Amino acid sequence: MSEESGLSAVEAVKDKSNYLFGTIREDLREGTASFVKENAQLLKFHGTYQQDDREARTSTGEGKSLKEISFMVRTRIPGGKMNVAQLLAHLDMCDEIGNATLKITTRQALQLHGIVKSDLWKCIHRINEIQLSTLAACGDVNRNVMCCPAPYKDPIHITLQKLTDDLAQHLAPRTKAYYEIWVKDPDSGDSQLVGGATEEDVEPIYGKHYLPRKFKIAVGLPEDNCVDIYTNDLGFLAIVRDGKVVGYNVLVGGGLGTTPANKKTFPALAKRMAYCTADQAVAVAEAVVKAQRDHGNRADRKIARLKYVIASKGVEWFRERVEEHLGYKLTDCLPDDVHDFDDHIGWFEQGDGLWFYGLNVENGRLFDREERRWKTAFREICHELNPGIRLTPHQSILFTDIKPEHRATLESILKRNGIPLSAEISNVRRWSMACVALPTCSLAITESERVLPSVMDQLEKEIARLGLSSERFTVRMTGCPNGCARPYNADVGLVGKAKGRYTLYLGGTLLGTRLGTIYKDLVPLEQITPTLSPILIAFKQHRASTNETFGDFCHRAGKEQLEKWSVEYATV
Ligand code: SRM
Ligand code: SF4
Q1: Are residues 434 and 416 in the same domain?
Q2: Phi and psi at residue 51, to the nearest 5°
Q3: What is the pTM of this model?
């Protein structure tokens, strides 16, 4: 493939892989620290990335650097729904074979970092033993399906989680490779089939070459867009009538990754395609996946996502392709659209006399350091209260099914481990997110997760000084333009562009329904708060009403006016 065929090199790897087997099994037995290139590529479909700690690189003295290879392992958790045993197992693995931290991701999954090759089988096998899976957490397939994690015991939330589980199951690759390599006990051969893998060796939905690129689905509600539905390749926006989900507006072609130097690439919000009834949703998802499989670009991975098919052919054309796969016509979208957003942080009654507590985990990173002992606190909560667990699309966690009399116990466990209660966290910090970036992400240009807390320290002081602490707006940072913390539709987006410098986007919205635009490029890290400060002052002075949000204000004012105000209010 590749040059002669006009297809990308990854297509050739998939073609030769025998449905994702490659030679991973053989490679695992080698005493090497890394996998050969083709296997490293295939491993993504199995939920793991070959990486290195970029700060641990040493020089050979001949202009080359030596890398300490390790693996990121991502556990796919549809809707972020898991149990105490599964969380505890991940906490144990991060201590026993990882880098002693655990990351809650922006798509309700968990990531372990720093797993060495000789521990990789043990790690993925253990994840399957606890009835979770890493299959299709990464790779050119449908990834973790997002869903509102609020555990309300009403027919709406129950239906949404059920659809999420059905979609995850239906669109999981069917290859035997995952089961054979990671699940099956190499000695006894006796093992349970879990995580959506089956023993069929054909892929009825994906085919031999899987998708042209990654594919992401979210299931959301108009009144609560916590899943950021418009940033997904495929979104199912629930249509609720008389307290029941009757169907979905189907949104297609969202995706945020961009390469600024490549003018063909851009972030895009999904387009409203059609309406489907609740019982058609899984078939519609399959048809959308098949249409992208057939029409996505397989020559250039930079423009292979569904958003580029939609941009070049139009949403009507794509809908016809979907209908061909379905064998019937869909109707147009209903008028319902996103109009609010809840991050589910704080205490809430869940509808059955029990409570859930949404705890903000700054940038999703769990660790134990002197002043903050996240892992210890979570272990104590799990052992003492045995709650349900939900991970949120904002890198945070919900402890569910808490008896009213146990609320104080949960809070006291957090307090004695130095974890700030949700009520103690400023709005600006609560609504912020940062991607992993340095030191493990090979694509990072700047810091993100490790520096956003210090930006928050400054910004929350400035916001308090201006009397704006009760404002709700999102600040999201990434270490490169790939957009893993969804900065492009945030009120304030900070995107790593060059060492220590960020592109500042303004004018997105907490609702997730509008992209921001570039306000200033190459802003040094230490200038982020000073750059935002005059804009915040202008917001205070000139907002249309107290209902106008910061993002809406910046969008209405436009770059030119914001620049004028930034001069006028620079010294205030
Ligand atoms: Fe991402 C690649 C981390 C959510 C767009 N992302 C990566 C890699 C695997 C780097 C790599 O390819 O070598 C990062 C691993 C870093 C590390 O050391 O752990 C990485 N992405 C993450 C996570 C962990 C960020 C976080 O801090 O939470 C998120 C994991 C989600 C999950 O559980 O599945 C994560 N990534 C996202 C999102 C947000 C979302 O999906 O809601 C996006 C933007 C939406 C989208 O897909 O367009 C996103 N990640 C990308 C891209 C750009 C894709 C594109 O179409 O251009 C890449 C690069 C690529 O695929 O080539 C990327
Ligand atoms: Fe890495 Fe860039 Fe994603 Fe951040 S946005 S995790 S730096 S790929």
Answers
A1: no
A2: -135, -175
A3: 0.97
